[in-house]
From TrEMBL:
Pfam families: Band_7. GO terms for cellular component: plasma membrane. Keywords: Membrane, Transmembrane, Transmembrane helix. It is found in: Membrane. The gene is stoml3b. Gene3D superfamilies: 6.10.250.2090, Band 7 domain. This is Stomatin (EPB72)-like 3b. Belongs to the band 7/mec-2 family. The chain crosses the membrane at residues 31-55. InterPro entries: Band-7_stomatin-like (IPR043202), Band_7 (IPR001107), Band_7/SPFH_dom_sf (IPR036013), Stomatin_HflK_fam (IPR001972). SMART domains: PHB. Residues 53-212 form the Band domain. SUPFAM superfamilies: Band 7/SPFH domain.
Length: 283
């Protein structure tokens, strides 16, 4: 907290983070240099033995932040490869630069339209500034996890249920921006945030299912009514065409008889010539 307050006060006075790190890695003083020289002197005397305590190795994906008498020795972390430390005066902290992912535990969230849902997610982040990750926060991983939970509740609390279900990409992007801005002083870059699952109450699930079913039934009735209307218009046009040509009516009559004859039924139909019933049709 003291370090963050110091950085905040320095920012108010217009001092950059690099200048603040420079102040933090300042001179050791007369007593400090005397102790360092004394440690180096004993290191040279016992050189065959102390060589095993002076040489350290970090991997390609790691960096080492070296502290000399409690102060960071350089504005840049060491590594990868071999680096040199003085026994008794120097200590170092290894920082992993690989991308780390963690699951956000399911959070009970009240949306803007007063619906309680359970939401969980996943966050991908990495350390971009090893010195800030060591000097500005006690546990960068744990702090990022807690901040992700709080950010998830804050962001989703401003969204409606419909937005939460349909606009997950925008919510994830908003969470990533907020997290990345908040963890910048910790030397952490949030690369990606994803919303994994949204669990609704059972009563709300049944209500939404009933609403969707009713909507589908209404759409089916509308489509059926439109089909009946189109069919009636087609029949009207066909009747007008047949009325203009009596021979077309007789051909349609014979076609109907042919269709009925091909079906397996026990009904016997005796067709009558059209000229016999034309008199009754005129009346």
């Amino acid at each position: 907290m003291e370090m963050e307050d110091q950085m905040e006060s320095q920012k108010r006075r217009g001092i950059s983070k690099d200048q603040l790190i420079s102040e933090r890695t300042g001179s050791l003083g007369c007593i400090g240099w005397f102790i360092v020289i004394l440690a180096g002197f004993f290191t040279m005397i016992f050189f065959p033995i102390t060589i095993w305590f002076c040489l350290k190795i970090v991997q390609e994906y790691e960096r080492a932040v070296i502290f000399r008498l409690g102060r960071i020795t350089d504005r840049k972390a060491k590594g990868p490869g071999i680096f040199f430390v003085l026994p008794c005066t120097d200590s170092f902290v290894k920082v992993d630069l690989r991308t780390v992912s963690f699951d956000i535990p399911p959070q009970e969230i009240l949306t803007k339209d007063s619906v309680t849902v359970m939401v969980d997610g996943v966050v991908y982040f990495r350390v971009s500034d090893p010195i800030s990750a060591v000097a500005n926060v006690s546990n960068a991983d744990s702090s990022t996890r807690l901040l992700a939970q709080t950010t998830l509740r804050n962001v989703l609390g401003t969204k409606n249920l419909a937005e939460l279900l349909s606009d997950r990409d925008s919510i994830a992007h908003s969470m990533q921006s907020n997290l990345d801005e908040a963890t910048d002083n910790w030397g952490i870059t949030v690369e990606r945030v994803e919303i994994k699952d949204v669990k609704l109450p059972h009563q709300l699930q049944r209500a939404m299912a009933a609403e969707a079913e009713a909507t589908r039934e209404a759409r089916a009735k509308v489509i059926s009514a439109e089909g009946e209307m189109n069919a009636s218009r087609a029949l009207k046009e066909a009747s007008l065409v047949i009325a203009e040509s009596p021979s077309a009516l007789q051909l349609r009559y014979l076609q109907t008889l042919s269709t009925i004859a091909t079906e397996k039924n026990s009904t016997i139909i005796f067709p009558l010539p059209m000229d016999m019933i034309s008199h009754f049709m005129r009346k």
